[in-house]
Design goal:
Elements: H1 7-25, H2 32-39, H3 43-49, H4 53-74, H5 81-92, H6 97-113, H7 117-143, H8 153-172, H9 178-192
Length: about 200
């Protein structure tokens, strides 16, 4: 009896191989042949799932974002709005090996998106998720008296996301220590959430 192939698992296997290559060598190290060898599958298998290199790269970019979202969502138990926002932001910062790897990969794709509209569109699709989540938590904190009533949640959400992104690259290259990053984040969250 022929073995059943889990097609989504195979696509993720190929995407994970691509991401390992991007982490080691940058986007320029990616080729269908190189990815097939890294994934331990044939070139034909890679081409069966992805018609083009760009299609494979876009899938891998979405895949890494989904991994981050899953980790962030795992933090979302019933806690204070400040704690939820803090946990979500910390999951996006390069403070351990897994998150440093993701940050290096994201930086490579970000650089590509500056000159490639398809990559830029894929990255833009993920941004509203953060903005909506941050704004919802600020609105919830305002209702509970844990944030100033005069804050505009949507504006503060943009600022929170900008601060998060602004901390990623300097931390990734070792300019900021984990303690410095956490302290800066907590000080800003104290301003937004009245010391939470």
């Amino acid at each position: 009896m022929p073995r059943q192939v889990d097609h989504q698992a195979r696509r993720r296997q190929i995407a994970d191989a691509l991401l390992r290559i991007v982490d080691r060598e940058g986007l320029e190290g990616v080729s269908l042949r190189h990815v097939a060898a890294e994934a331990g599958v044939s070139m034909g298998s890679v081409q069966h799932y992805f018609a083009t290199k760009d299609q494979m790269m876009i899938f891998a970019l979405i895949h890494v974002h989904e991994r981050i979202y899953q980790r962030v969502n795992a933090c979302l138990d019933p806690r204070s709005p400040r704690d939820l926002v803090r946990s979500a932001i910390i999951e996006m910062l390069p403070l351990d090996d897994e998150r440093r790897t993701e940050a290096r990969i994201a930086l490579a794709f970000l650089a590509r998106s500056a000159v490639d509209p398809e990559y830029a569109a894929t990255l833009r699709e993920g941004y509203p998720y953060h903005a909506v989540f941050f704004a919802e938590q600020i609105r919830r904190a305002q209702q509970n008296g844990e944030a100033p009533a005069d804050l505009v949640p949507e504006q503060e959400a943009v600022i929170l996301f900008a601060i998060t992104q602004g901390l990623v690259n300097p931390t990734l290259i070792g300019h900021h220590t984990e303690e410095t990053v956490i302290d800066a984040l907590d000080r800003h969250l104290d301003r937004v959430f009245r010391g939470g």
